[in-house]
Amino acid sequence: MSSKLVIIGAGFAGVWSALSAKRLINLKRKDGESKDIEVIVIAPEPSLVLKPRLYEANASSMFHPVGPLFKDAGITFIQGNAEAIDTDGHTIEVHTPSGNCLSVTYDRLILAAGSTVVRPPVVSGLQRYAFDIDSLASATKLESHLRTLLATLPSTPARNTIVVCGAGFTGIELAAELPGRFPNTRIVIVDIADEIGPELGKRPRPAIAKALNRLGVEVKLGSAVTSIDAGGVCLGLGERIDAMTVVWTAGVRATPLTRHIPGPKDSLSRLHVDQDLRVPPSRHVFATGDAARALTDTEGHYTLMSCQHAIELGRVSGYNAAADLLNEPTVPYSQPTYVCCLDLGAAGAVIGKGWERKVLLSGGLAKKVKAYINQKLIYPPLNADEAIAAAGPVVAWTWIGHLIGFVWALL
């Protein structure tokens, strides 16, 4: 009887988990030592949504089909939404597009279901009136809304104003991108923080501020959003901004499925995992990508909700879950090298190295690096053999190595 390694999610961590697990299983099969293990991926669609690119134009095209890749790699795909996990019974409740409810059993589970944007109920009107770019559907909806406004409504200050709520990574990239897509539009970033990009640190901040100023993006800091309606935004200091487009980018949380798995969670609802990416109270469960709070190094740094970390986390979690079933040694996760690449629209980009984000490049050259990441580096190979070969748990150096090689070629 075959064992089942089930992965929930087909994002970066989920796709690379499946490929990495299949790689180890294939290697042991060649050695004549492999057990019969079925690798199963559960996700709403057989596609990898390129979330790091959803701030760009043509959002509806920002996905990468993985159905053919899974089929060629011998990975089973179940289309549906995982709604509940029973760690005692080793079962997952899955709702399919046809309305059926499946019960999928597992021997090892990898939770790679990503994260979702948080919409605090304290902000009146947020649920009804604000857009976001957290999913393919929501980013496509925003783009359609903006084009419809420009095509059908007369020019007014409210029609011509876009307010981006949140001055973090996503908010900055979106606000910097919008002037190039929608000229003569007022772009305003609002955040309760006192500094732009608070989580990015002080080193890249001058480059970010200079770029936003060059692009004509207004920045309002120290102002909480209190309410949103069809015609604008009200701030905590009593100011109102008339705008028919408000985009919420202020914070995300791990998939709600983390609540179904016993064990401590952090403030982002991520599961605490050990260096094997296993959830200690549930020895048959691994968490990866945005669902995992994993230690990256010996300096006390933890993973971020980024594709840079998700890709490597996926490689390690898939390998270790398969190794656990094959009675093979596991590989501890470690990713000490971190590179922050922030797109600044027509003003270029800024690239910072390490957790202190020491600026390595900015402007046009950095923009070429960011384009290489978005348009090449984050895509898995289309060929199954190439994808499986690239899925080994090499721990950080594959991604960073390609990036460093590209930068050196530019220089």
TrEMBL record:
Task: Give this protein's Gene Ontology molecular function annotations.
Answer: NAD(P)H dehydrogenase (quinone) activity
The UniProt record lists the FAD/NAD(P)-binding domain at 4-312
* Co-factor requirement: FAD
Q: Which Pfam families does this UniProt record tie to the protein?
A: Pyr_redox_2
Checking SUPFAM superfamilies in the record gives: FAD/NAD(P)-binding domain
Q: Which family does it belong to?
A: Belongs to the NADH dehydrogenase family.
Ordered alphabetically, the record's keywords are: FAD, Flavoprotein, Oxidoreductase
GO BP annotations, alphabetical order: aerobic electron transport chain
DNA-binding: present as a keyword of the record? no
Q: What is the protein's given name? A: FAD/NAD(P)-binding domain-containing protein
Extract the InterPro entries matched here. FAD/NAD-bd_sf, FAD/NAD-binding_dom, NADH-Q_oxidoreductase
